[in-house]
Fold:
Amino acid sequence: MSALWRIRVVELSQQPPTLSLKLRAIHPDSGALPASLSFAYRLLTESAGSATSALGQIAYPTDDQAKETIDSVIVSDERNFPYDDDAAKRYIKDELLGRGLTPDCTPEAWDASFIESWQELWRGEGSIAEALAPTATLTLRLKDPLALSGITQGTEWDTAAYG
Structure:
């Protein structure tokens, strides 16, 4: 399965036990931002790594299982949700036209530039990603500071977690 989200630990606190994660969609199929306890639990266990996590890793935890560890999930700083594939393609087309490229007169340059712009969007680079990439912050309020063991600020990873 392809990765859907890039996650970065942006803040953690022992008292109260809190973890803030910046999420950025890295695949057009990432869909709506999941804010469920089970999704947050998967990110929490992935952030610590299965070898160091005090939680253990459950492949598809339920919200009831996640409630044992996570008190709440707060979504903030949402940008570019819901993702609109057609709008993204129109935006890139307008950017290329603004550079003087046209699909009819410069087909090779148009195709290469469109592909590069599309890849920049999903790599999170440049003005196109800034304008279009879906991003948000998830703040997990935890019940136990031990759930933060093995997690370090600035850690990044890709996940195929959903819903």
The longest strand covers residues 70-79.
